[in-house]
Amino acid sequence: MFDDPLFIIVLIAVLAVAVILMLGMGGFASGGAFNKKHSNRLMRYRIVAQFVAVLLILLFVWLRGGAN
Questions:
Q1: Is 68 domain-assigned?
Q2: Does residue 56 lie in a domain region?
Q3: Burial of 53 (0-12, 13-18, 19+ CB in 10 A)
Q4: SS3 (DSSP) at 18
Q5: How many domains does the chain have?
Q6: What is the rounded distance in angstroms from the CA atom of residue 64 to the CA atom of residue 12?
Q7: What average pLDDT does the segment 29-49 reach?
Q8: What transmembrane ranges does the database entry give (predicted)?
Q9: What range defines the domain where residue 30 resides?
């Protein structure tokens, strides 16, 4: 499965969502200037990255015949 390029792209997309989410949660937990400056932007990035990741997952399942 790790030799499938689409799987690697899906994995990278999911990891990107997780990293953006952790950055947003860390900024929210610490508060302060970083949270005020970047919280909305990070959550917008997370939503876009999550949308792309879900589309890639659906594409992977569809192309690999997951509906058998």
A1: no
A2: yes
A3: buried
A4: helix
A5: 1
A6: 18
A7: 89
A8: 6-33, 45-63
A9: 5-63
